[in-house]
Amino acid sequence: MATLRQRLYQPLDNPSSQIRLIEILSQSPDEKLSSTDEGIADALSTFHRLFDALGTSYKTISGHRVPDLDGPEWAADVIEMKKVLITPHNASHFNQKDHTFIPSSLETFAQCPFWTRVWIQQEITLAPNVYYVCPTKAISHGKLYFTVDSIYAMLTERRYVREASLLEPIVHNLANALDRVYGRLLIRFLAHMPSQHSKVLARLKVLIDTFSGELEATRPVDYVYGLLRLSGLDMVPDYSRAAPDVWLELATKYLEIFQSERPELNGMCPAREFLEPHGILHFIQLCGAGLRRDQNLPTWAPVLTPLRRRQHRFPICKGSSKVYMGLLELQSRPDPRVVDNSLWVTAVKVQTVSTCDKEPLNIDAFDVFASTVATQFESFLATHGPTYVSGQPLLTVLSSTLFNQEDTESSLEMLYHILLMHNLITPRLSEQLIRDGLKRLPYEAVEHHFVEWTAKRGFFNGQKFICTEDGYIGLAGADVQEGDIICVIAHLNQPAILRPEGDQNLFVGCCFTLGLMKGRLLTWSSKGGQRL
């Protein structure tokens, strides 16, 4: 499919002019959603059909006509429809036959490149009216947002996944694809809500997306400048500046939001509360420069260009708790701040890395990965014995670490299936797996966990197993080395690995280590905080 772009137009008083405008949009590959109908027209037809199904339910329940979800009141109309339907993602609103039309065309629609472009995000958010057009079909932004919201919520609901006629991997892949589209549409929805609170949330959602690596820009500085109208940061575009300088200013201005925020009359701090689930310092985990990603930046600063194939952002553990919340030492301390290009944080030293793998995991060749895991787990059994320092079975902890999940229930089963697929179940591993509680469930019983992990397994390319002086085991980035410090930083949801260098600390990366917070804490004194 050719490079795809989406353009904006407003309804015209003259219908013939409107038709002519659509024809113009459809004839230029630079000014439309798609240069062909392939997949896109089917997707738009599906969205219309599903919206009509939701509209029928709305009309039956409320007795009112279905809003057009267009014009200046579209966001308010979306809220009204949601209130009436209560659960618009309920599969009962749709005809079962509709489900068979969902996957292929909608996934094609979601994979259109324009969804990731920074300038497109700004255009579709600021325009008063937006329509998505291909040669034979069109849909308004309001209808698309409401329908995508409903479908995405339905696809991620466990009850629907169990009952759907579609295979679970298909449902999961489609949900992931639509998640990217939904994120773009949500920003426009928040920005067009009447309340000032929603507009603040739209700004913050833009900043989250900026750091997430989901957006693309031709010029590196446009990861910042291309979204300034949406982020609202006090920055003046200067295209003569080097990209690292602009990224550093972005991080500085971003942190100033929380330093200057004052409670509203109801006592709430919208920015802080919206970012709390992510952690104010989430950008360090997602796109921190680290030791080798950009020599022109401090190791903590964000790198906003697409990652090279061998680089991966450290994954955020699904359902993981904020490790810093349980430490009194990190409460009621100054917010993170930037002074002279140094990031000052409040941190507590937890452990020191005593050993780490020589070579990182390689998931490109899955058979090599499985063989490496089997060898590594055999080695850990030999050096640590069958029981982890927390008292849990060692293989359970290792498999949970590998699959990046705190829920250990299905970890052994997933490990067993991976090793079994590659004939790597040794007598010792088999015996220990059974002792640790392996039930040898059918593959279908753990499939949804395995599908989730498969979707993000690329994150683990370049990760190394590490071990601390107290026997805790985890995964960390390829740059980790013996003697590095594992610490907990206020407002960063996962433990960080730092390397002291003179009067400051280099940010090496984040790590995932089960049971770490149950061990001893080492005092790391500094009234002014730690300097990165």
Labels describing this entry:
six-stranded antiparallel barrel; three-stranded antiparallel sheet; 20 helices; 11 strands; 43% helix; HetReg/Transcr_Mod; Heterokaryon incompatibility domain-containing protein
What report would you give on this structure?
The protein is α+β, with helices and mostly antiparallel strands and 532 residues long. It has three domains: 15-191, no CATH class; 210-360 and 462-532, no CATH class; 361-458, no CATH class. The chain is 43% helix and 11% strand. The chain is built from 20 helices and eleven strands. The strands form three sheets. A six-stranded antiparallel barrel has the order 5-6-7-10-9-8. Strands 3-4-11 form a three-stranded antiparallel β-sheet. It has a two-stranded antiparallel ribbon with strand order 1-2. This is Heterokaryon incompatibility domain-containing protein. It comes from Fusarium solani. InterPro entries: HetReg/Transcr_Mod.
Q: Span between N and C termini?
A: 45 Å
Q: Describe the global form.
A: globular
Radius of gyration: 25 Å
Number of strands: 11
Q: Detail the poorly predicted runs.
A: 1-32
Quaternary status = single chain
What's the rounded overall pLDDT mean? 76
Count of discrete structural domains: 3
Question: Largest beta sheet: what is the strand line-up?
Answer: 5-6-7-10-9-8
> What portion of residues belong to β-strands?
5-15%
Question: What structural category arises from helix and sheet content?
Answer: alpha+beta
Biggest sheet descriptor = 6 strands, antiparallel, barrel
Helix content: 40-55%
What's the number of helices? Answer: 20
